[in-house]
Recover the amino acids of this structure.
């Protein structure tokens, strides 16, 4: 069973980022939430920060872009060394062309859906992406409650993947805990972002390991 646990450093101590990264050395990817106070009402990291995180940690970077005008800005994150860059379909005008530019740089590319955005909006372009991110909170902040209403979307994406033989990963982000990861894995997700459930504990790597075990036990993959 291949599942991935990607801790979100949105819940880490930004003043001690190198030390915070060393707490999750068993993570599959570091999830980096890039926010611009425009697409979402919060402000976090930019490209220079991503470049420093890349230089500080050997763990691959999973950049989640929550910014306006992603067609302009997204490829720069791949150039800074991110192994994966996820776009929000709501903030792109040409997601397929932008995806191709990211792939040409050598990174994986994902497409994200806010809770109110149906999978139908991207079904025709889904095969251009390496990862579909189903948001299980409204993007912007860590520590929110998992929206079980999104599980049907996860099932729909998983059914599409099975029936078309496509190979993208299905990621969920927001409110993932030892309880909710079970539901998401059963619905068909294989890649899990967890912020407060990892960084809110004393032993972050143990939290990663526990989440991974529960996800494996409930995954269909
Ligand atoms: C929310 C971010 C998430 C956030 C998750 O907009 O995309 O990645 O860090 O935090 P938790 O796991 O605490 O919900
Ligand atoms: Zn995120």
């Amino acid at each position: 069973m291949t599942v991935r646990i990607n801790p979100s450093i949105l819940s880490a101590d930004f003043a001690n980022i190198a030390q915070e990264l060393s707490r999750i050395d068993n993570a599959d990817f570091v999830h980096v939430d890039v926010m611009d106070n425009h697409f979402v009402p919060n402000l976090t990291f930019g490209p220079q920060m991503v470049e420093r995180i890349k230089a500080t940690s050997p763990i691959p970077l999973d950049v989640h872009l929550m910014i306006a005008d992603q067609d302009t800005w997204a490829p720069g994150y791949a150039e800074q060394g991110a192994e994966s860059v996820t776009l929000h379909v709501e903030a792109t005008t040409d997601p397929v062309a932008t995806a191709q530019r990211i792939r040409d740089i050598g990174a994986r590319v994902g497409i994200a859906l806010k809770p109110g955005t149906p999978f139908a909006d991207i079904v025709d372009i889904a095969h251009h992406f390496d990862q579909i991110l189903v948001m299980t909170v409204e993007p912007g902040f860590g520590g929110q409650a998992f929206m079980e209403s999104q599980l049907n979307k996860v099932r729909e994406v998983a059914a599409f993947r099975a029936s078309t033989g496509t190979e993208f990963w299905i990621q969920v982000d927001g409110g993932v805990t030892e309880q909710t990861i079970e539901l998401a894995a059963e619905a068909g997700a294989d890649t899990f972002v967890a912020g407060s459930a990892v960084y809110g504990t004393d032993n972050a790597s143990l939290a990663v390991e526990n989440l991974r075990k529960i996800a494996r036990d409930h995954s269909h993959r």
Notes: The CA atoms of residues 34 and 45 lie 5 Å apart. The pocket of zinc ion (ligand 2) is lined by residues 8, 31, 33, 64, 173, 193 (CB under 6 Å). The longest strand covers residues 30-35.
